[in-house]
Amino acid sequence: MPDHVHILLHGKSERADLPTFMKRFKQTTAFNYKQQTRRVLWQTGYHERILRDDESSESIARYILENPIRAGLTSHLGEYPYAWSDVYDLAGLFADWERNPRPSRSPRPPQSHS
Predict the structure, then answer these.
(1) Burial of 53 (0-12, 13-18, 19+ CB in 10 A)
(2) pLDDT one-digit tens code per residue, 42-53
(3) Of the chain's two ends, which shows fewer C-beta atoms within 10 Å, N or C?
(4) Does residue 69 form part of some domain?
(5) 64 with 21, same domain?
(6) Is the Cβ–Cβ distance between 91 and 99 less than 8 Å?
(7) Radius of gyration of the chain measured on its C-alpha atoms
(8) Is the domain of 57 the same as that of 29?
């Protein structure tokens, strides 16, 4: 998305620390971006939402990957050039979703962190 990013994270231990991760992620990417463009990348804060037990990470991944279509940036899954995953085989997900289309429900609203 041109004005925001969706990130689906999974904490692998009880010590997983989202605020610290977000701070480091934003610092690192902002520094690199500013070095290249001389412009500011991020606004202050972020929004987060923890998945409920009845929500699958795949359904949230689908919501995220369909977001460029809803925003009118693309017309088909897989066309958005900035979508990627270290966990999912996106081509496989896209093919499965094309075979089994279903409307994506919007996830619960995120919590804001300033």
Answers:
(1) exposed
(2) 998 889 888 888
(3) C
(4) yes
(5) no
(6) no
(7) 16
(8) no
- Main-chain phi, psi angles of 65, to 5 degrees: -70, -20
- Containing structural domain, residue 37: 13-42
pTM score > 0.70 for this model?
A: yes
* 81 in the same domain as 33: no
**Structural domain includes residue 6:** no
Amino acid in the structure at residue 71 = A
Report which secondary-structure segment, H or E, holds 111: strand 111-113
In 1-100, alpha helices (H): 18-37, 57-70, 90-99
* Spatial CB neighbours of 4, under 8 Å, sequence gap ≥ 6: none
- Residues 79, 72: contact at Cβ < 8 Å? no
pLDDT of the residue at 102: 64
Looking at residue 30, what is its pLDDT? 95
**Is 33 among the domain residues?**
yes
Q: Which residues contact 39 (CB under 8 A, 6 or more apart)?
A: 33
CA distance 98 to 95: 5
